[in-house]
Structures are given as structure tokens and as C-alpha cells.
User: What shape does this take?
Amino acid sequence: MSERKKVLGVYGAAGSHWVGDGFPVRTIFPSRDVEDLSPFLMLDYAGPAHFAPSNRPRGVEEHPHRGFETVTISYQGSVDHHDSAGNTGTINPGDVQWMTAASGVVHEEMHGKDFTSEGGDFEMVQLWVNLPAAQKMSKPRYQGILDSAIPRARLGAKAFARVIAGELDGVQGPAKTFTPVNVFDVRLETGRRGELKLKAGQNSAIVLLRGDVILNGSSELKGEALIAPLARSGESVLLEAKSESLLLVLSGESLNEPVASYGPFVMNTESELKQAFEDYRVGRMGHVH
Ligand code: MN
Assistant: This one.
């Protein structure tokens, strides 16, 4: 058996706020307790929340990003996306949108048309993945990854992980990344257990969106929006679900580069940040419509 990764702590979300009028989010990191999980910059958990039927789409109007990637995973509800590079798409339950903002994307993220008119339960995450300095000003890229394109790796008897990015037990995820990044969607029914293999030397964390799970037989994550960062050494984590649990597993190689970030821009230096604001202001990142 491989050496287990030590659980460094179990922490709650930093706080909650609305993103636009469509996303009631809890920021799981960064927080006072989890500051650096490079290459991951931020994780927002939207919902679960119920929205009544409406004739006006809710969401976030046109806004820019530069220097990193936004990864949106839908569990319930749908989001329509339009951006300045001409990409459009709808993220439905099970789907993942992996958007590389790189040199600059202006986009809007609105609840889907059908979801808006019918209403319903809404639950998503948005993860920000940093880009290495060499790729921050490269061309934007858009990957709309459908549920059906995401393969499963077996963790144990009737316990599986969906491999969105990276590799797990020989199963390769469909998302293209610029540096080694692993993103796994794990749903465990009550009583299921599994051994999750993770690479040594990377930053990694187990995120419990909701449920009750025991890590390595001793650390319990129970409730909603909790994160357990793991030690870099070791190669596996034992998961045991005490009730139905929804987890997100993140692991990746630290970039070891300076981070200068403000709002929707994540660069390496203050002068690059200033340039980003200026480029957006004068329209160099384009517009959605
Ligand atoms: Mn955005």
C-alpha cells in the first residue's frame, strides 16, 4: 500500500457573497487558512440555491479576465456563456467549461434560458487556475466539455471519480491544461469507500461541497463548503462516505512564480496589472456583443 497523504487541516469557507445577481457563492479558498494552493487561485461554490421562474435572466454581465483560466462545473442548473472571442455555450448539469482567458477575454455568464423561465435548483463551482508567465499573454482558448466526454476511474466497490483534467489510475481527463493539473469530481453514496491515488510533490486538497466524509480513517469533513489541504508527500487518500457526499479533488504542480492579482486579472507584476486595466478600458480585450 502506498503512503497516505497527511491531512493538514479542515477549514470552512472564507465568506459568502453574490456574483452578479445569479450566483450566491461561498469562497472556499483563498482564505485565512488556505492562502496558497498554486496553481489553483480561487474556488467559489455557488448554491445550492433555488431560483423561482423569471422572465429576466440572472447572472453576471460583461466583464473581463486575463492571465488565468476559469473552470465552471455544473451540478444543477445551467449557464449560458458568450465571449469576446466569439465562443458561446451552455453549461448543463455534468458539463464543464474550461475557459483560458490568457491575453484577455470579455464574457458574460447568465442563467440558461430554460432554467430562467422554469426556475429550479442551482449548484455550480467556479475554479480559477493560474497560467505560467509564459502563457499569460497567449491566445484565449475555450473548451466546452460535455458530461458524456468525462471518463470515470474506479476508487473502490461502487465508488468512482469523474476525471475532468489530469490522470487518475490510468484514466485520462479530457481537459487540456498548460501545466500538470488534476481535477476530479467525486460523488459517493452512503457507506461507499475508496482509495484515491494522488501524485507526490503536488499541491492538493479535498473539497467537500456537501455531505460527510472521513479521510484516512480519522479526519472528518461534515457539512458544506469545507476544504482539507493535503501534504505534498504521500500518494493516496482513503475516502469513506458517512452520508451521500459531493467532493471536488484538486491537485497540481505549484508554479513558483510571483502573483500580482486584482479583481479579474492575475499577472506576475504590478505593471502588468496596470496594463491589463488599461487594455480592458480602451477595448483591446473586445466586447461580447
Ligand atoms: Mn467570469
